[in-house]
Amino acid sequence: MPSSSEGFTAAPWSRLWRAGVLHSCATAITGNYDGEIHRFWTEQFLTLADGACVLDVGTGNGAVAVLARDHARERAVEFDIHGIDVADISPVASRTGGSGFYRGIEFHPRTSIDKTPFKNGSVDLVCCQYVFEYTSIPASIAEMHRILKAHGRIAMILHSDDSVIARVSLKQLEGCDYLLSNTPTVERTRKLLELFLTTPYPEQRRQLANDSSAEAIRSSFNMSAAEVMDRVAAKDCPEVLRTFAQRLVGIVRQGVQDPRGALSALDDAVDSLVDERERLRQMRAALLDEAALLEIAARFGALGYGVACGSLRQEGDVKMGWTLVATNG
Predict the structure, then answer these.
(1) Phi, psi (5° rounding) for residue 220?
(2) Residues 182, 113: Cα–Cα separation, whole Å
(3) Mean pLDDT confidence for 161-179
(4) What is the pTM of this model?
(5) Rounded to whole angstroms, how far apart are CA atoms 280 and 165?
(6) How do strand 148-158 and strand 318-327 relate by DSSP bridges?
(7) CB < 8 Å & 24+ apart, contacts of 16-19
(8) pLDDT digits (tens, 9 = 90+) for 71-101
(9) Would you say 160 and 166 are in contact if contact means Cβ atoms under 8 Å apart?
(10) What is the distance between the alpha carbons of residues 238 and 136, in angstroms, rounded to a whole number?
């Protein structure tokens, strides 16, 4: 199996988590994880005794770690909860009231699963949600095996190539590619804003009606913007395209009064698109078919683990990915 970490870059994820979203499914799930995802993790936490050490790998802004902490409170026990991420995370600083929201959880930014700060045989439960498949799988398994206690457990939710997440994300990637590579809309918007910047006074703006070069800039922008809006009106429009179009309308309106600020806002919007495209490209490379899942299971089995694999399905039998639980003895 090739390493899924090939070509992985953490920076786009660092910026996502610093923006304050709790988890990467924030556009589809309000608040923390619910439904079958929540149920899966609850089943893992129920096996833990008071004082158990829980490690959430690829924690992001700590969604699974928070589920573990809240579960422990409901049972009137305490877990020693840690979240690691190769990204430069800072969950407490990324959320208003973060010190209270994350009380009882210790985060470790810029920490890879293949080189953790934990002692041999010190962790009772390793949690991985939509992260293990991005890593160098042999190295990750070796490190988790090193730090896991006897009779400990590794629990994962993994991206599958036939999940709703895969289907929606690939559509999102098409939207990003269109906006960044297949339409001149961004550059034509920039030229329009630069035109506003060079004509700040009303009299100058009125004279633009007789300026052929200015009219060409306006017309080319209108043409590209209309094409984008036609795509937005389509039934299968990816959400990233709809969101960007709404943002573009606001940027152009801002440009009438504040072209410099609008140019900065356009740069921010494009930077966000570039990050989103990179995260989606990494996800596409990490999607697992059933054969890849079974190969991962076999690697754990070769180390003596008992392994159970399955499909995770939310309401309406919507597949969210694979599950894998490996028990050490």
Answers:
(1) -65, -35
(2) 37
(3) 96
(4) 0.90
(5) 11
(6) antiparallel
(7) 16/60, 16/275, 16/279, 17/60, 17/61, 17/85, 17/87, 17/89, 17/90, 17/91, 17/94, 18/88, 18/89, 18/90, 18/94, 19/94
(8) 999 999 999 999 999 999 999 999 999 999 9
(9) yes
(10) 31
